[in-house]
Every structure is written in structure tokens, then in C-alpha cells.
Amino acid sequence: MSVLSPPADFVYGNTRLRARKAGLLGADDFEALLGRDLAGVTESLAGTTYRPEIEGMLGRTGEVARVHEALRHNLGRSLGELRVFYQGPARTLVDLLLARYDLHNLLTLLRGRLRGHSPDQVVANLIPIGSLRGDAADEIARRQDPAAVVDLIVSWRLPDPGTARALATAWPEYERTQDLAALELALATQHARLLQHELAEAGAEAEPLRELIARERDATNALVVLRLRLALDRDELAELPPPPAPGRFLAGGRIDEPTLDAALRQPGRAEAATRLAESARREDWRAPLERFAAGGELVTLDRELELARVRWAVKLFLVGDPLGIDVPVAYTVAKENEVRNLRLLCEEAGGNTPAAVVRTQLVLPRAGGQWGA
After folding, report:
1. So where are the chain's domains?
2. For residue 72, what pLDDT is reported?
3. Which of 16, 72, 283, 325 has the greatest number of C-beta atoms within 10 Å?
């Protein structure tokens, strides 16, 4: 699948998304939900775009899991509707934007079945968008034997032929080692390569999408490097692993593999973080990496890089091309983050996480404003 001329037409879809932007929750909305019980949270959400899913809970228990289910379905519905706003080359680019849900759902299906979770538990963690949803997901999740699960995914060539082939190749090694992390890495690496190939063919109009993917890949790779660097500093590792084979890190980032390996082999965390900051060439990465270099926690760096990604993406509402993929990128990231924040607030409302902890984990738009304001 490649993006060919004529140029993608985003006019109709972007007009629809700009209208929907007004319905996204802002920082004040999230703050207002802190400290409420679960009934209070659901009552507030019933007055928003979540109303259809919240009303669908009527007659059922209001436990946290049910609210999570409503949020999951709202996200799937919102992004599914986003997709149908576009046709032709524009639809192709939007499909690439949403392709990471295929990987999420594939890993969720495999992880759940390999860990012995019930089919209902597995399906409840899927996002209802893409090829691994609905009847296909139900059928796969209900296979009892993990090998039968894999056989079905491979035979149906899901979520795409390339990733299905990667699963068929990696599965015998998993059966030998039972190393789920290695299996997931193999699938994530192949999916990243496929997406990188598609984006390389998409031309200049896909640049905002390439940067979004690059930020995600670079953050994942940088955190792996720094986690290993910290383990060595704390004597949790006796020595650094050997130089990685090509493909060890996820493809599609701005920081290449030789640079990642060079950062790993710096004498300390400060030097490693500095090398990564220089290579990323993103001003909004510099301060978080400097704080980490000075002794900050890795979990804090993770959150700050995510905050930088979200704020970069939603700023495209204002500074991006109004007739390009910029608007779908901004809306998608804002909606994903909104659901993530609401899940955290539901955990607090259900008594599972203290409010002080949730407050530190929320990724918020600028205080007092809406996304992109």
C-alpha cells in the first residue's frame, strides 16, 4: 500500500475534526474530576461526547472495569469515525496513523492467551479498531491452545501479511524458550519496519506522521538505553551487552542504531543522556534529558517525553497544515491522551490509586485551556 498522486484531500475530514476538537476535555475538566467517586465521574462524562457509551452501562454495575470498557469503546468509535471522513490517499495516510492499534491488539491477544487469561478478559483489553476486532478477535481469543491461536492469526494473515509472517517465524523460538518479551520485540520490530517502509513511500505530506512515529520510537529506544545504563551503574549488570545486531532497536526513529549503541557505552548517565539529546535534535527533549542526567528518575523522564510528544502533536491544530495529515495526528493523539487520563481518574475514583499519585501521572494540556488553545 503506497500513497500515490493525486495529492491527498483532507479538506472534508479536517473540517469535521476541527468541529470535534471543541468536545475534547481540557485541563480544567480533568482537574474537576479529581477527588470524585465513580458515580460522580460517570455522571460528568454523561454530559460529554462519552454519553452513548456511559448510557450503555445502564442496568450494569458501575465498577471501574465497566467504565474502562465504556472508554475503550468510545476511543474505538471516535477513531473509527475519523477514518471514514477520508478517502483515497488521505485515507491511506490515516490508516497508517491508526496502524499501531493493529500491533496493540495483536500483542494483547497473544499476551492474554499465553498467560492463560479468559477470552472475555482478552477481548476487554482490545481497542475496537483495525483488523483484529469484532468476530475475528472473538474467534482468536476463544482458541484454547496457544499454538491454535497463532495458527489462526497466521492463516488469516492478521493484522497484515508481513506481521503474520513475522509471527510464524518467531513462534518456534518462543515455544523453545517461552520468552514472551522476545516474541513481542520481534513482532514490534517487524511492524515498525513495515510502517517505516510505507511512510518512506508516502512523500513529503506524511512528514508530521513520520515525526509522530519517530518520537514514539526514539522514546522507546532511548529509555531502553538509559535503563541498561542505570542497571550497569547500580551493579545490576556485570557488563554491557555486546553491540546489538541490526534491528535490535525499533525502526522509524530519528536516532540511528549506531548512536543508540554509542550512548549506551558512554561512561555514565549524564554522558549517555547528552548524546541522546544531541542526536534527537528536539528542543523539547533537552530539558527532560538534562534533568535525568543530573540524577532524575527514569519514570519521570518517561512521563516528560510523553508529555512532549502529546504537546507537540496537539500543537499541530494551530501550527500544522490545515489541509494535511497534521489535523488527524493532532486529534488522534489528543483523544488517546484524553482516554488515558480518564482511565487514571477512574482508578482514583474507584479507590485503586491515590489522588496525589494520579495527579502526577496525568498528561495535561496547558493549564486552564483546551487542546491546541
Report:
1. 11-361
2. 94
3. 325
